[in-house]
Design brief:
four-stranded antiparallel beta sheet; mainly beta
């Protein structure tokens, strides 16, 4: 089939983004991040394709509960979504059991942990849904005061695993 179109390759102009790193976690989920050593934090962005016209579809990633492999138990994930009413959301979770959160145990937001010592340490949440892709950006400190539920981020450690 000849449509008579001529394709010409031109020099691409690099696009500046606020993120220095990017990885595809799944065919429909991308994680980007920039380490800010001056402020001891990491700025993350999760972008995922939506399967319906409704927002309120969550996506997440987190630090492994193990220092030597991927492990869900003990992991420190962040769950993010764009809510139809309240806009972009990102919540700090802790996985203490392979169950739904119940009485502060299981896959729970940090603020619901049964110890009462955990806090949501996610800040600067922004995001939107554009053409069926939702993106949520947020900031997390390298080290938080929440040693029960959070895993410290070591920007120099190339062996921290993502789940």
């Amino acid at each position: 089939l000849n449509l008579g179109w001529k394709i010409t390759v031109v020099d691409a102009v690099p696009t500046k983004t606020e993120f220095d790193n990017c990885i595809t976690l799944h065919e429909t989920l991308q994680l980007s991040w920039t380490v800010d050593n001056d402020n001891s934090n990491v700025r993350f962005r999760l972008c995922g394709c939506q399967s319906t016209d409704s927002n309120n579809q969550y996506m997440g990633f987190g630090l492994s509960g193990s220092t030597s492999a991927t492990l869900m138990m003990g992991a420190d994930p962040t769950i993010a979504w764009v809510d139809d009413t309240d806009g972009p959301q990102a919540v700090d979770y802790y996985l203490s059991a392979y169950t739904q959160c119940r009485a502060g145990s299981g896959a729970c937001p940090d603020e619901m942990d049964s110890s009462g010592n955990c806090t949501n340490d996610i800040s600067n949440i922004t995001g939107s849904v554009t053409n069926g892709q939702q993106c949520v950006s947020f900031t997390r400190q390298f080290s938080t005061s929440d040693s029960t539920c959070d895993i410290n981020i070591d920007p120099g450690d190339t062996n921290q695993y993502i789940v």
